[in-house]
Design a protein that fits this description.
- The protein has two domains: 104 residues, Four Helix Bundle (Hemerythrin (Met), subunit A), CATH 1.20.120; 176 residues, Translation initiation factor eif-2b, domain 2 (Rossmann fold, 3-Layer(aba) Sandwich), CATH 3.40.50.
- The protein is 44% helix and 17% strand.
- It is built from nine helices and eleven strands.
- It has a seven-stranded mixed β-sheet with strand order 3-2-1-4-7-10-11. The protein has a four-stranded mixed β-sheet with strand order 8-5-6-9, covered by helices on one side.
Length: 283
């Protein structure tokens, strides 16, 4: 389970950073079924597998924090035997996953209340929290029109627009990333999720920054939705991920290189507000 989860995270089979963190935490349950001779052996296995999960995507702050918290909960408690160590692990996993899930759901509920009937939105990439917020709002009777960028090179926006197309009271449109400036004049707001906010910078799927800059130029507010656990004041250094060139073009490059960063950095000065489980922060 741990090895499969590591591969899934590396291959971006799961796109939501909150879901990735939960999957990584749950993967550590595999250790509860293994046999260990001593507490020291168990703690080494927990640390080793936790490190492997964190290396699978060093850019996901929620994943990094979730796994670190679980490992630390066991190490700091100094359990007397292996059963006690496993009990601490299971309790920490339950606590971390419950907090991530509840934070994500509360953020979506708060965002759903922010949507006005008849709003036209633009969103970029795939955010399970944004999708949940839209679903909650439209299920309550709100009508929304949503433009969705493809989010190249992996085209995660296509997954988003398919989900929106299944919702009642949503008129969904798929557009190329470069067409966002053309449609922003028709939009009341840009709504995106987040990988994390570290100090004065929003890190999110590559392409967020140009959308944010264009939205600021045409005076369309940018609203970010996500758990407050993703807002980090210190102690975390964001490490970008550079994906395979084959995601951009299938044929091997000849005489040139293909650069494929997974995330970009958006100054929080370009944000209008951030809606979290703890409420709304204005910038």
């Amino acid at each position: 389970m741990i090895d499969e989860t590591i591969e899934e995270i590396r291959e971006m089979q799961t796109h939501s950073s909150s879901v990735v963190a939960i999957k990584a935490a749950d993967a550590l349950r595999e250790l509860l079924d293994r046999e260990f001779a001593t507490v020291e052996e168990y703690e080494r296995a927990l640390e080793r597998n936790g490190s492997a999960l964190r290396r699978a995507n060093p850019s996901h702050a929620s994943l990094q924090n979730a796994v670190r918290e679980i490992v630390a909960a066991v190490a700091e408690a100094d359990p007397e035997d292996v059963p006690a160590a496993k009990e601490l692990t299971e309790s920490a996993i339950d606590s971390v996953t419950d907090r991530i899930e509840s934070g994500k759901h509360r953020a979506a509920e708060n965002a759903a209340e922010w949507f006005d009937d008849g709003m036209t939105l633009l969103t970029h990439d795939y955010s399970s929290t944004v999708l949940e917020a839209i679903d909650l709002a439209t299920s309550a009777g709100t009508y929304l029109e949503v433009y969705v960028t493809e989010a190249r090179p992996r085209y995660l926006g296509r997954k988003t627009v398919r989900a929106l197309a299944e919702m009642d009271r949503v008129e969904a449109h798929l557009i190329t990333d470069s067409a966002s400036g053309y449609y922003l004049d028709e939009c009341d707001a840009v709504v995106v999720g987040m990988d994390c906010i570290v100090e004065d910078t929003l890190y999110n799927r590559v392409g967020t920054y140009p959308v944010a800059a264009t939205a600021a130029d045409v005076d369309v507010p940018l609203v970010v939705v996500g758990s407050s656990a993703k807002i980090i004041q210190s102690g975390f250094v964001f490490e970008n991920e550079f994906r395979s060139p084959s995601e951009v073009m299938r044929e091997p490059p000849e005489g040139f290189s293909v650069e494929n960063p997974a995330y970009d950095a958006t100054p929080v000065s370009l944000l209008d507000s951030v809606i979290t489980d703890e409420g709304t922060r204005s910038y």
